[in-house]
Specification:
This protein has about 350 residues and is α/β, with parallel strands linked by helices. It contains 13 helices and 13 strands. It has two domains: about 5-190, Rossmann fold (3-Layer(aba) Sandwich); about 205-350, Rossmann fold, CATH 3.40.50. The strands form three sheets. Strands 9-10-11-12-6-13 form a six-stranded mixed sheet. The N and C termini lie far apart (about 55 Å).
Length: about 350
């Protein structure tokens, strides 16, 4: 067993090294959260005879303040095998599938949760949020079961617990879940004035290797980053289950798809999660400003950017609007702040500028 002092030193060094690699130093708020994480590690790894009931931890704050980065660095270094990291969209996709397979069984939810968390002493839930009334009820049952089985929950969120399911019409449905969070989790706000995604350094890879392109009519900007717009005869379909989805082109592990094909059609996390396994680079064409797109299409774009960024898939956005025009049109859209923060990771290739 690692002594407490050695454990804290090891985890602190791992987190600090990750910060250096990312090109920044920890601010006071991040240091305070790190200290709480070190305390949590001590409790988790204490000998059973001295182990207290370990309280879970909920870290929230504005997008880009380093929540996921800090918790990811801690989670990777935590010397515990019985741990699991999940992302909201991926986890709920799996949970819905598991429940569907057990449809009709009185204990379907409990069995599904147990299967998905089996063997985990720590469950790290990144991007903890809820906007759907049905998911609110399911999330409350999930929380109740996790805490009853002494699974320690580590959560990052852009929302204070009291702000989950912010729609006032449905917020009351989340109140039992909020009470469970407050009763079983320490809550810390990670604040700060800097969106660290605006300060990314080093060689870009994955999502960060993508671009926001505002092309001229002759596609100079697309060609400058090694892309060539597909011809009509490259159009095809992708199949998920019994459903077919039109796409603009499939070039090996590169997917070309228009905004309408991706977001105006009834697509969901089920399709996005399958496609990120098949394609290393997505090129999304004809992305409009949000004053043109309908609310459901807006939400799908928010969701797909969440998934692409979390899965670290190279993403290129092609739009007649500049990135600043897009940001201005989306900044007042509820829940768009996560997407707008992530889009700062893309390289901006404006119209009339070649590389």
């Amino acid at each position: 067993m690692v002594k407490n002092r050695e454990l804290r030193k090891w985890l602190t060094a791992a987190i600090d090294e990750s910060a250096v690699d990312s090109g920044f130093g920890l601010n006071a708020s991040q240091i305070a959260v790190r200290s709480q994480l070190l305390d949590l590690a001590e409790d988790l790894l204490a000998p059973r005879r001295r182990r207290p009931r370990v309280r879970s931890l909920y870290v929230w704050g504005e997008a880009g303040r380093g929540k996921s980065w800090l918790l990811d660095a801690y989670f990777r270094a935590l010397p515990l095998e019985a741990k699991r990291r999940v992302h909201f969209h991926g986890f709920f996709d799996q949970l819905h599938r598991q429940i569907h397979e057990r449809r009709g069984a009185a204990t379907a939810v409990e069995e599904a949760v147990r299967d998905l968390t089996s063997g985990a002493k720590v469950l790290y839930f990144d991007e903890f949020h809820v906007h759907d009334s049905g998911d609110a009820a399911l999330l409350t049952r999930l929380l109740r079961q996790l805490f009853a089985e002494d699974v320690v929950l580590l959560a990052s969120s852009n929302y204070a617990p009291s702000s989950l399911l912010p729609n006032p019409v449905w917020h009351h449905l989340m109140e039992p879940g909020i009470d469970l969070i407050l009763d079983n989790m320490d809550v810390m706000e990670l604040d700060g004035d800097v969106d660290f995604r605006s300060r990314v350094q080093g060689s870009p890879a994955g999502f960060q290797a993508g671009h926001w392109i505002t092309p001229d009519s002759d596609d100079i900007q697309l060609n400058a980053v090694g892309l060539q717009r597909p011809q009509p005869d490259e159009a095809g379909e992708l199949t998920v289950g019994s459903r077919n989805f039109p796409i603009t082109a499939q070039r090996g592990r590169e997917l070309w798809i228009t905004f309408d094909q991706l977001c105006s059609a009834p697509t969901s996390a089920i399709e996005y999660l399958q496609w990120v396994q098949r394609f290393d680079h997505w090129v999304v064409l004809d992305v409009p400003t949000f004053d043109i797109a309908d609310p459901e299409a807006q939400q799908r774009l928010i969701n797909v950017i969440d998934i692409l960024c979390d899965s670290d898939v190279q993403t290129t956005i092609v739009s007649s609007a500049s990135v600043s025009e897009f940001r201005d049109g989306a900044k007042n859209r509820p829940d768009a702040f996560r997407m707008l923060s992530r889009l700062q990771l893309l390289h901006n290739v404006p119209a009339a500028v070649s590389l």
